[in-house]
TrEMBL record:
An example molecular function term from Gene Ontology annotations: polygalacturonase activity
Protein name: Polygalacturonase
Pfam families: Glyco_hydro_28
Membrane-traversing stretches: 12-31, 148-168
Organism: Rhododendron griersonianum
Keyword NADP carried by entry: no
Record key words, sorted: Glycosidase, Hydrolase, Membrane, Transmembrane, Transmembrane helix
UniProt keyword Transmembrane helix, yes or no: yes
A single BP term in Gene Ontology: carbohydrate metabolic process
Length: 469
């Protein structure tokens, strides 16, 4: 129980997942007789630089958007894995459209995509292997049993571009026997970087590092239709910063397991940093804690958060049978525009994986801090609902101005089974959150010490290629 989880056109349209980047710093052309030599140099920041490089074309890859490159990616990763103890290797994906099925990565490995490279995920569902459910979930999220493997599964991902398949239609028609795949999933891993990419239209969770530590998710853009189910942006990481997410579900969803399976697995999500996040999600939260939080969530620090046309700011979701805890949550600096709720804590949320959960397993929600919040066009300031006999305690809100919409609810705050205090909050909060006066406006906590993940420094890595035409 002492482990720590630091941390998911038409009906025939391709599952478009464009993970975009790869920075071209210089391009130079020289004349050599009748041939031109094109020299491209790429530089990108990464946790580790690699001693060996290869192109997907070296393994038979064809970037015409039609030929299957599944074998090429498998062969490339298998071959380059031999350099793990000799400086590692990077696989370069040049400009083009590269159709492929799911593939796994390896340790000490960088997947680098040219800024004009796109990975297209195969639409043949039969070509996606089925793997076991997560042990802290006990079953697939959509259905009992396993789940389709994620499009990219492995470690040390950097600079990726992806496009994908028709999973939502199959899901809505209830034709899928297993849980939908995620875009990128990293399991049981250490020191992973996912950066400078754009993901479009994942079939379910987009970025899902789980049972892992020292995960950096940075400079990521995630785009999903706002009506798409379960397309959570990032679930979760250790440090998430400078990300822009449009989602049909929570932009960042912090989890740690589902009911008795999460309690038994005992791997809490701890020491999570979220900075400079921009979210659009009309039906879900900017940052959600839960509802699968049975392994525990502790020490989450979020600051400089912007939400536009989003259901709620930071939402805590839990219920009877979950057990676990959500505690030591610190949020500083939120700018919210057109929201249903600025603050939402729910103690009656979520289904159960099976009938084996313990109805006496109630969650502990405590030490929740929100400070320096400005919101406009909000339907309701807050909906804060604990559990009868299990009040949520230590809720602190300070220096918050909530501008209500013209058709806002008549009662801006509803509070049940909670305890806490406020200072400098407009409109005036409910009686369970008494105002401590203007002299206490800085009373809510936000730790000033640095977490270990902030000590990780990125190196500047490079790659140079010459093409003769």
């Amino acid at each position: 129980m002492g482990r720590s989880w630091r941390s998911s056109a038409s009906i025939q349209a391709i599952w478009v997942i464009m993970l975009v980047l790869g920075v071209v710093l210089s391009t130079r052309m020289t004349v050599e007789g009748r041939k031109a030599r094109i020299l491209e140099s790429f530089e990108y920041p990464a946790i580790s630089c690699r001693g060996h490089s290869a192109s997907i074309t070296d393994y038979g890859g064809v970037g015409d958007g039609k030929a299957s490159n599944t074998k090429a990616f498998h062969d490339a990763v298998n071959h380059l894995s031999q350099y793990g103890s000799d400086g590692g290797a990077q696989l370069i994906v040049p400009a083009g459209k590269w159709l492929t099925g799911s593939f796994n990565l390896t340790s000490h490995f960088t997947l680098f995509l040219h800024k004009d490279a796109v990975l297209l995920a195969s639409q043949d569902i039969n070509g996606w292997p089925v793997i076991d459910p997560l042990p802290s979930y006990g079953r697939g999220r959509d259905a009992v049993g396993g789940r389709y493997i994620s499009f990219i599964f492995g470690t040390n991902l950097t600079d990726v571009v992806i496009t994908g398949a028709l999973w939502w239609q199959q899901f809505h028609k209830k034709k899928l026997k297993y849980t939908r795949p995620y875009m990128i999933e990293i399991l049981h891993s250490d020191t992973i970087q996912i950066s400078n990419l754009t993901l479009v239209n994942s079939p379910a969770w987009n970025v899902h590092p789980v049972y892992s530590r020292n995960i950096i998710v940075q400079g990521v853009t995630i785009l999903a239709p706002v009506t798409s189910p379960n397309t959570d942006g990032i679930n979760p990481g250790t440090k998430i910063q400078d990300c822009y997410i449009v989602s049909g579900d929570d932009c960042v969803a912090v989890k740690s397991g589902w009911d008795e399976y999460g309690i038994s697995y005992g791997m809490p999500t701890k020491q999570l940093v979220i900075r400079r996040l921009t979210c659009i999600s009309p039906y879900s939260a900017t940052i959600a804690l839960g509802s699968e939080m049975s392994g525990g969530i502790q020490d989450v620090r979020a600051e400089d958060i912007v939400a536009i046309n989003t259901e709620s700011g930071v939402r805590i979701k839990t219920g009877v049978g979950r057990g676990g805890y959500v505690k030591d949550i610190y949020v500083r600096g939120m700018s919210l525009h057109t929201m249903k709720w600025a603050f939402w804590i729910t103690g009656n949320y979520g289904s159960h994986p099976d009938t084996h959960y313990d109805p006496k397993a109630v969650p502990a929600i405590q030490n929740i801090n929100y400070m320096n919040v400005v919101a406009e066009n909000v339907s309701m300031a807050a909906r804060l609902e604990g559990i009868s006999g299990d009040p949520f305690t230590g809720i602190c809100i300070s220096n918050a101005t909530i501008g209500l919409a013209k058709k806002a609810k008549k009662v801006p705050w509803t509070c049940t089974d909670i305890e806490g205090m406020t200072s400098g909050v407009t409109p005036p909060p409910c009686g369970l959150l008494p105002d401590q006066g203007p002299e206490k406006i800085g009373m809510c906590d936000f730790p000033e010490d640095s977490l270990p993940i902030d000590a990780v420094e990125l190196k500047m890595c490079s790659y140079t290629t010459m093409n003769h035409i």
